[in-house]
Amino acid sequence: MRPKLTLKQIARELDVSISTVSRALRDSSEIGEETRKKIKAFAKFYNYKPNNIALSLKNRKTKTIGIIIPEIVHYFFTTVISGVEKVANEKGYNVIVCLSNNSFDKEVLNMELLANGSTDGFIMSMAKETLQKEDYHHFTEVINQGMPLVLFDRVIDEIHCDKVIIDDVIGAKKAVQYLLDTGAQKIGLVSTVDYVSVGKLRTRGYLEILRENNLEVDQNLILKIEDMDSSEAEIKDFINKNEVDAVFAVNEHFAIHAIKAIQEKGLKVPEDVSVIGFTNGELSKRFIPSLTTVSQHGERMGGEAAKLLIDKLERKPDEGESYKTVIVETSLIERNSTKSLI
Amino acid sequence: MRPKLTLKQIARELDVSISTVSRALRDSSEIGEETRKKIKAFAKFYNYKPNNIALSLKNRKTKTIGIIIPEIVHYFFTTVISGVEKVANEKGYNVIVCLSNNSFDKEVLNMELLANGSTDGFIMSMAKETLQKEDYHHFTEVINQGMPLVLFDRVIDEIHCDKVIIDDVIGAKKAVQYLLDTGAQKIGLVSTVDYVSVGKLRTRGYLEILRENNLEVDQNLILKIEDMDSSEAEIKDFINKNEVDAVFAVNEHFAIHAIKAIQEKGLKVPEDVSVIGFTNGELSKRFIPSLTTVSQHGERMGGEAAKLLIDKLERKPDEGESYKTVIVETSLIERNSTKSLI
DNA sequence: TTTCAACACTCAAACGTTTGCGCAAAATAG
DNA sequence: CTATTTTGCGCAAACGTTTGAGTGTTGAAA
Predict the structure, then answer these.
(1) Cβ pair A116:B4 closer than 8 A
(2) What's the domain count of chain A?
(3) A256 in contact with B at a CB cutoff of 8 Å?
(4) B1 domain-assigned
(5) Can you give the pTM of this predicted structure?
(6) pLDDT at position B318, please?
């Protein structure tokens, strides 16, 4: 076992000072050609690589960005990570991923941990519990310390920082309009409780587009799910109780449960009932029938978030603060769970 | 904006030396009760948190472990990450996730990056390209530097380190035996090319169990897929050309393509043809029919890997080297893509 | 011959910690 | 009242870098 080579060892070996080695490796003109060559050859031969920790300490920046997400076993989040990774790496940044498991405490813990020197900034989607508690002190804390923060997907207005979101309302409107266009009259909505912002917004889109089409809203046709674990049963119940000719679900799981329930009721998708989901995951693509869905373009969101963060990180401190909100457009992907346009 | 508090600032503020502050915060008996209380109160009030980077540099360990995986948009890997995270966090370790995107170069780059001070050890699954190239110098490199390495899932014998694998052969045997037990006679195999070790091993399980049952192997019933992109077409072709009454696929994507192809051929799953997959992902659970599958228990694998790594990290250097291979058992999860036992 | 710039390099401080050692003052023992 | 121990704290080195300032040679201009 041969431990890592340091400047000090090179210096001792070649009988020069540490600073000479450092400068030689950075091609400083202060060092004589011969010495420089000798040092570089030695370093190359023994595969010298500077110690990142020491560099971070010296430069007071780590060149790594921290991502904290509620859960990783979730297609959308993984695509976002991919997107962040891609642009971060291009710009010489590293990525650390931490999970909050939707727990407020773990979110706080992870942020504190990463804030203590591990990262230069954060890209986050908030834990469900945090949204419920409405306790955002840990966010303002890191912002006050001068660490940039970019929020994505689950976002709230109270926190002043850069944000990347999708046009949930518009996306929902597109979806519901599409259902109307393909002949649906009674459209059920399967959403989440309102403190999950995306659920709220998509619900709003649903309501707005009905209003725009001068249709009445039937509250019986709106299901708001609190607990993921009981979602399957609730959806089944909802489908059995109500006569609908289309369902708009705010995520793919709900959409699939809806399809199952519809089929078990003896109806066909899309002939009798059309179904549209949100989030373009594996499930949507592979399911039979494959799901017509509002695609969130997670990778693009991740990329945008990374760009915003790195911009902030590399901006001079004197340039005034200003926070941007980037909206990544959704698009409707037509597959086989809906009737096609005439 | 208020930058992070340091020992130095506390010391200046309270008019004591830095070392006194450090000791007071660690409850050293060398510091007088009064001073200690004062310092602790001050630190608490202003929410002092030691800088991790400085600590890492001083202690020459980072308390973080690096995970490098081929891709994150993949259910199995995310479950592994979850598992690692869980036990790592319990033991006070952090987790960094990096992606190789199945590229050899990026794998090497990421390892070098993380090896230069960012992590104390690695948990990895190898990139496909690395397996093809059979170039493992970057692994031996970090091992030589004294960094522990745990390989999981995609593993090869040439690298001497701890490993966590599943009993691919046994898992495959279980699956095929189950198909035989439910009355299948002609069982097709949809596998990957042999340099992907899991493909090879699962293929071996298939062959072994046929032999054990004194059945002949028909090479026409074995499909080895090289390119994921063309897998759908290849599988369709394979199903159309061959008469089978069961299919064993080495992952869930292949299984689902097989089901689609079978249905498009006018046959029913599982009445006419049974299908078993490998990996218990979202897709397997939600697909209709839901997939009977060999579950890999990714979370358990991640947990075991983390335990092995942390064990190594916290062992005294004098204790001799010895490498373990932990085998995580697979289990067959019976769902609706196979006939049930009589 | 003196002056001084250019060259090639070294010293030392800094980033934020921890910790062995030293040192003065206070407390105890003789 | 001196001698020794204890108490309470500070100094400085170390982890691996970078970098401004300093230093001792050259060689050329004045």
Answers:
(1) yes
(2) 3
(3) yes
(4) no
(5) 0.88
(6) 59
